[in-house]
Batch of 2 targets.
Target 1
Amino acid sequence: MRDRSTRSALVRAVHLGGARTRAELAEDLSLNRSTVKSLVDDLVADGLVTEHPSSGGGAGRPSLVVDPVASAAWVLSVDAAVDWVTFSAIGWGGTTLAEVEHERGAGRSPEELVERIVAATADLTARVGTSPRAVSVAVPGLVRSADGSVRVAPNLGWRDVPLGQSVGDAVGLACVVANESDLGVVAEHTRGCARGVDDVVYLFAEFGVGAGILSAGTLLGGSGGYAGEVGHMRATRRGRRCSCGSDGCWELSVGQEALRDALGLAGPARPAALARAIADIAARRGTLPDAYVEDLATGVCTIVTMVDPRAVVFGGLFADVLGVPSVMDHVRAAVNDCLVGRQQGVALHVSGLGRRISVIGAAELAFAQLLPRL
Ligand SMILES: [Zn+2]
């Protein structure tokens, strides 16, 4: 059996699992060894993998290790964040081949971003030695997945920007555009601490608070693309006016500015300063202020009850907050005490992907379309 879907399954297994022996691939994919051999021979002929003897000992003939050639199929993954833009050449198999990061400076227009992407494509092509197969862009805003147009990105000042079309035309490649929270959960699902878990919430705080939700392996978008805007669920009976125009939003209790206030800091709420303050206060007191932690736990329980995930991964400033053991203990106890937690347990993790989570997720979204064609 050497049909296209079998080749795709093997390509995907190598992409997600990295270098593995033919024997391991045969076992994982429930294929016989001769089928794996002929598929791998084709991939070697196409320049997509190399093979070398496994270094492990053991009796008998060693199985050859199948190793993806990252530069043979790579995507240009762009994180168009508010304060910086990262351009990353990520090869199949998940290897980062080259990466550059620019401060945003004053220019945040879509036209400027497209120009930078064109320049980065040339730069990274020269460095890697081969051309990218696709481009993917992470944007802090609402994106229509069908055509990659940005409906609104408040922190960039964008509205109705046909970014996918503009980038695709400019570089002559397929371009996928997605929201950073969706990409967060994609990254955790493929390369992070929720690998292989199909029901996951990625919950993060940066400028705002948001969530990417994977339900039965599918990204949850909602009818208008607003699913996951958990920072704006009404969490208090009366509160200050939120930037979204509503009143009493959860973000006002647990977001960046609320965290600054809870920690007793003055001035603008900057992530690096907040992370330092969290570490400092946790070291001195062993925990963070009770009211903040309780509001956080309440919201997490609401989300868990609504979504019924197997795992929740905390990113951005929440990674710093939940990295304090006593805070994690408090939130975990609250989750274990709510209906879903009592019934089946929900794993809580702190993201280990850091600031690169968006480029990793964006690359994986592009690979989801690219791999079946390799
Ligand atoms: Zn709001």
Target 2
Amino acid sequence: MKIEMHVHTNEGSPCAETDAESIVKAYNKAGYDAIVITNHFDNNLLVHFGNTEKARIERYLLGYRKAKSVASENRIKVMLGIEIRLEPNEEDFLIYGIDEDFLFQNPDLCFMSQKELYELCHSYGAVLYQAHPFRTPCIPRDPDFLDGVEYNQRPNSGNNNKKLDTWLQSYPDLKRISGSDCHNLQQVGYGGIIIQETVNDSQELAEVLKQHPVKLIMNEHSTQ
Ligand SMILES: [Zn+2]
Ligand SMILES: [Zn+2]
């Protein structure tokens, strides 16, 4: 399967320009079998999403649910992930292996430490990756509480993936994924992973990430 691991929709991420249905269509056309919707789970956004925790999570899930609702007619699988920013830092983390209930049960994720988040993810069967660890102003966070790191493939985004290569030499046990960090139709399909297994949802994807090597889709412009 060819899977996009990092994509935003404008229902959930104000910085994204493209709606969920258009994103699903574009990824189908680009030959992907599945996409993980990873809208920003960022307290600065969530506070504007509603007055109660439940309302905020419902609003957060809008883009994922819209994408999911048009998935089958586009012959592509849509899975739930999140891109979370932990207060008060600038780094982003990608989580795979969760479902809607996880978010309703844990609406305060942004205020956890990295260790608390990592342990919570593992207790749920989920995995935690740091997104674009060398994109300014990000720095790599504690590798003891990461499953892996992302080779972000969005062109001209200052990802500094060469620095990531060097840093990873000291942490050979960390896993690697690739993602496009797609925010609009021009950013579709630069990254992702290829797996031999067939997965149907985020939990099954997390199991493959834990147990099997994945092939990374790399874009030559991503290091800029
Ligand atoms: Zn964004
Ligand atoms: Zn992103």
